[in-house]
Design brief:
The complex is a heterodimer of chains A (114) and B (248).
Chain A (H helix, E strand, L loop, with lengths): L3 H19 L3 H23 L21 H32 L13
Helix pairs in contact in A: 1-2, 2-3
Chain B lengths: L1 H19 L9 H18 L4 H9 L1 H21 L6 E4 L15 H23 L8 H18 L2 H7 L2 H24 L22 H29 L1 E4 L1
Antiparallel strand pairs in B: 1-2
Helix pairs in contact in B: 2-3, 3-4, 3-9, 4-8, 4-9, 5-6, 6-7, 6-9, 8-9
Classes of the chains: A mainly alpha (114), B mainly alpha (248).
C-alpha cells in the first residue's frame, strides 16, 4: 500500500504512452505527452514526501521542524511552467503542419517535403 | 497495437520493479533524505529565507534554474518564430467572419467578472512575485498569474483592447529584460571575486520582505520573464485564430 503512489505514476506513464501511440490527431498526441510527463511529478513528489512532516516554509514554525524535501518541489515548480511553454511550441508545430498539408493525423502526414 | 502491448508489458514490469525498490512513501531513508534535510536546516540560518523551495530555486541551485528558464525562453522564441507571418502569405479575415456576419459581444456576466477580476489578479500576482522568499510563491508562479489579466480583458472585450493593454514590443522587451536580468545578476558577484550567482546582497531579517539578498531580485526578473513569455504566446496563438493566412 505504501508504494501506491509509484504505481499511480507507472499507470499514468503507460496510459499516456498508449494515447501517444494510438493517436489520430496531433493536438491529442501533445496532450497525451503532457500526461506522460505528469507521471514524473508523481514520482518525484512521492520521493520527497515524509509522513507527518511540515511544508518547507519556516515562517510560523522553528527551522528545526522536520519538513518534506524542498529539492524535488523546486524541480516540479519550474518544470510545470516550462512544460506549458514547450507544449505551446509543439502546438505551433502542429498548426504549421496543418497549414502546409491540411492534415492533423500523424499517420497520414507522409514524408517531409522541403 | 500488438507491438505496443508487448513493449508496454515489458516496460511496465521493469518500471514497476524499479519503483518498488525505492523507499515506501513517507518514509525517507537516510541517504536520500540528507540533502533535503541539510537544505531545510540551512535555509533560515544561512540565507535568511523562510521558504526553502524558493531558496533551492534561486540560491542553492540557482544555476539549474537559469538553465530551466532558458529552456522556457528558447521555446517561446521558437513558437513566435514558427507562428510569424511568412513572406509568401497574404492575410485575410477568417472564413467564419466573412459575408458581413457580426460576432456577438460577450455576455454582461462575463464582462463584469473578467474586468473586476483583472485588478485583483494583478495585485495577487505582484504579491506572489515579491513574497517568494517569505512564503510559498516566487517568480514562476507570480509570472503566470500576471499573464492572466490580459486574457481576462480579451474575454471581456476585443482583441484590439488586448493588444493595446499588452503591446507586443513591450511584452517582448519585458521577456528579454527578465531573461537577461537573471544572467546579469549572476555575473555581478564575479567582479567581487565570488562565484557565479553568489548571494552578495545583505541578507536581512528572516520573514521580512527585504530578506534573502539577491533572491528577491531574481524573483522579479523571473516574474517579468514568465509573464512576458506567456503573454507573447497568447498573442501569437490569438493572432493565429483571428487572422486567416493563405499560403501563396
Amino acid at each position: 500500500m505504501s508504494h501506491l503512489a509509484y504505481f499511480v505514476a507507472a499507470w499514468l506513464f503507460l496510459v499516456g504512452l498508449y494515447g501517444v501511440v494510438t493517436s489520430r490527431n496531433m493536438v491529442h498526441l501533445i496532450i497525451c505527452l503532457s500526461v506522460v510527463q505528469s507521471s514524473t511529478y508523481v514520482v518525484l513528489l512521492t520521493i520527497g514526501y515524509r509522513t507527518g512532516a511540515a511544508a518547507p516554509v519556516f515562517v510560523d514554525i522553528p527551522p528545526s521542524t522536520p519538513a518534506v524535501d524542498p529539492v524535488v518541489q523546486a524541480l516540479m515548480l519550474t518544470d510545470i511552467v516550462v512544460e506549458v511553454t514547450v507544449m505551446a511550441l509543439l502546438l505551433a508545430l502542429a498548426i504549421l503542419a496543418h497549414a502546409r498539408t491540411g492534415e492533423l493525423d500523424p499517420n497520414r502526414l507522409g514524408l517531409m517535403r522541403g | 497495437m500488438a507491438l505496443f502491448l508487448v513493449s508496454a508489458a515489458v516496460f511496465g514490469t521493469i518500471y514497476v520493479a524499479a519503483l518498488a525498490s525505492l523507499h515506501p512513501m513517507g518514509v525517507a531513508d537516510a541517504a536520500s533524505a540528507s540533502y533535503g534535510n541539510r537544505i531545510n536546516a540551512a535555509t533560515v540560518s544561512e540565507r535568511h529565507i523562510t521558504d526553502a523551495v524558493t531558496a533551492v530555486n534561486f540560491d542553492f541551485r540557482g544555476f539549474d534554474t537559469l538553465g530551466e528558464e532558458f529552456i522556457m525562453f528558447a521555446s517561446v522564441i521558437g513558437t513566435i518564430l514558427l507562428l510569424r507571418k511568412h513572406r509568401d502569405e497574404s492575410e485575410g479575415t477568417p472564413r467564419d467572419q466573412k459575408a458581413g456576419r457580426e460576432i456577438s459581444p460577450p455576455s454582461d456576466a462575463v464582462r463584469v467578472i473578467s474586468v473586476s477580476l483583472a485588478g485583483m489578479v494583478v495585485t495577487f500576482g505582484i504579491y506572489i512575485v515579491t513574497h517568494g522568499q517569505v512564503s510559498p510563491g516566487g517568480g514562476f508562479q507570480g509570472g503566470v498569474l500576471l499573464a492572466a489579466p490580459p486574457l481576462l480583458i480579451y474575454l471581456a472585450g476585443e482583441f484590439q483592447q488586448f493588444c493595446r493593454l499588452a503591446p507586443r514590443p513591450l511584452v517582448e522587451a519585458g521577456e528579454a529584460v527578465g531573461a537577461a536580468g537573471y544572467a546579469i545578476i549572476g555575473v555581478i558577484p564575479l567582479f567581487l571575486h565570488a562565484a557565479y550567482l553568489y548571494n552578495f546582497l545583505p541578507l536581512g531579517t528572516p520573514g521580512d520582505i527585504f530578506s534573502g539578498g539577491t533572491v528577491a531580485l531574481i524573483d522579479l526578473t523571473v516574474g517579468l520573464e514568465v509573464a512576458g513569455g506567456f503573454i507573447v504566446l497568447l498573442l501569437a496563438f490569438l493572432e493565429e485564430t483571428l487572422v486567416r493566412r493563405d499560403p501563396a
